[in-house]
UniProtKB/TrEMBL annotation:
This is ATP-dependent RNA helicase. InterPro entries: DEAD/DEAH_box_helicase_dom, Helicase_ATP-bd, Helicase_C-like, P-loop_NTPase, RNA-helicase_DEAD-box_CS, RNA_helicase_DEAD_Q_motif. PANTHER family: RNA HELICASE. One of its GO terms (molecular function) is ATP binding. Residues 208-426 form the Helicase ATP-binding domain. It comes from Kalanchoe fedtschenkoi. RNA helicase. Pfam families: DEAD, Helicase_C. Residues 136-148 have a biased composition (Basic and acidic residues).
Amino acid sequence: MAAASPVSVSQLKRSKKSAVKKKRADVELLEQFDSLPWNSSLSNPEAFNITAGTNELDGGFLTLEEIDESEYNFEIPSIQEDSGVTEELLKPNKRKIGNGVDSETSVEGEGKGKDEVVTNSKKKIKKKKKTKSKEKKNSETDGMEKNPEILPVANEKDDHSNEDDYETLLEDAEYYAWNELRLHPLILKSIYRLGFKEPTPIQKACIPAAAHQGKDVIGAAETGSGKTLAFGIPILQRLLEEKEKTTKIVDLNGDEATNKFDRRGFLRALIITPTRELALQVTDHFKQVAKDTNTRVVPIVGGMSAEKQERLLKGRPEIVVGTPGRLWELMSRGEPHLVELHSLSFFVLDEADRMVQAGHFHELQSIIEMLPGTSSSKDELAANTQNCITVGNVQQKKRQTFVFSATIALSPDFSQKLKRKSNISKNPKIEGLNSIEVLSERAGIRANVAIIDLTKASILAEKIEESFIECREEDKDAYLYYILSVHGQGRTIVFCTSIAALRHISSILSMMKVKVSVLHAQKQQRARLKAMDRFREDDRGILIATDVAARGLDIKGVRTVVHYQLPHSAEVYVHRSGRTGRASADGCSIALISPLDKMKFASLCRSFSKVWSQV
Ligand SMILES: Nc1ncnc2c1ncn2[C@@H]1O[C@H](COP(=O)(O)OP(=O)(O)OP(=O)(O)O)[C@@H](O)[C@H]1O
């Protein structure tokens, strides 16, 4: 090895001089920046805006080109050893994740140990905070204070992707609420990158129960309140914790333990949504948070080539998000990744109350019957499937079930009924359950379920302003045209109940040279995605849709929802209206009420205990 040549005194002086020079130049540059007037690039810097465009599937929908698997980057990374990032982030003393040898995802009973760890790490964080802030005071370049507005904003360049993010997050008082939730550093890092300064109320309530107490959750909260991450974060948290524990066990016990504890390559979480667009969006949301965690998430939805989706499943993703029809199609064919369910730790029903309605229930029921430990008989299963690998009730006990929607009606004694049932050994049917309760119970909801209902009497999200226009049926088009041309701010979704009405409006509007996108279930999936893309690309876009767009869709900048025809139920009205006023944004929902709608409208008002006496 060559010896390092000694550095002369003059060389040292020279390098010191140039360092001082560089520092001075840096300070001057910073001063220049400081003297610029500050104009936020976002007129309304809501966290909601921040997420847009930061991910591969931009806003959750595929562009037309993306339909083809080879082009839309549904890359499934090959199964690898842990990337090592975790280790780096988990430097000793920063955060300690459990020390037990519990191989299960379940952390029931871990509470106490964890609390201790958290208290310690909190102390350390505080200490670190103090030292750092001291350093900050002494710093010459302090002119550039950490500005929360600029830190995490829609960072196309992903400015916060290095490992310092985690430390910065811990120091950043604005993000402090996340620390309370004891999340894995890689999740915190993603949250920081997304710019979500604090957990939403439903996230605050669900994460401790689901991620740390291992409970099942039935969660209800207003539209746009972040329910996807309320179940998404716990799933990722527990998968990450489990990965680390497994690595430790394998390190300690060698190959023997690998076979026993290593669950890589098996399906770990199955999330079911009622619509294809929503499944793609949820997949995308998961991917945003799972970035850097080496967790694979794949959507399985109808309208796309089943063969291609089978190829995606060959990559053995841990998380699958799908619609009941296509999932059941592949499961009933015995698709190996979807029927080897012995390691399934999470089963999620998003928009659960929609699932109990016609068009979904049958397939969903069949899927549930495939889950290990559900109440259907083995003969029934065998008849349904060619290749199902079942495990007994043990798996059901370990599996967590999450049931979410903005509109779930549970009877007050539902958990008592579940408890009574769990005390009787022979698995009797519980009497007097409503359909969503039956679904939850069949899906394996356990007696200690955390029922978190944050919906208010009005049910509608707080930031949505509701109004209605009374008019004759034949005047609806004129009013709609008026709303679209005068109202004009942001994007608008016009909802119809029938495809005939949708066609009628879109042809009238196109005659009036108003550009619209159209979405309904009879459209080819390719065209559906294209319509969504077009709508998303135009910040004053107009989407005419049936109720296929009513639930879950999270599209930035939707300011107005118009109910051209009233929906058949109060729930659908809530979900439709909830396409606006999401996260911290506001919006308005306008109903066009003709004499034909009055009965329906009156009953809608009664459902929300509203007094709209004009009707
Ligand atoms: N902690 C947070 N802070 C700010 N924004 C958040 C946070 N969590 C999620 N969001 C954003 O809020 C928006 C709505 O979230 P999400 O789609 O999960 O709502 P939802 O409650 O499932 O709505 P819906 O009932 O209509 O399905 C998304 O754009 C999401 O990125």
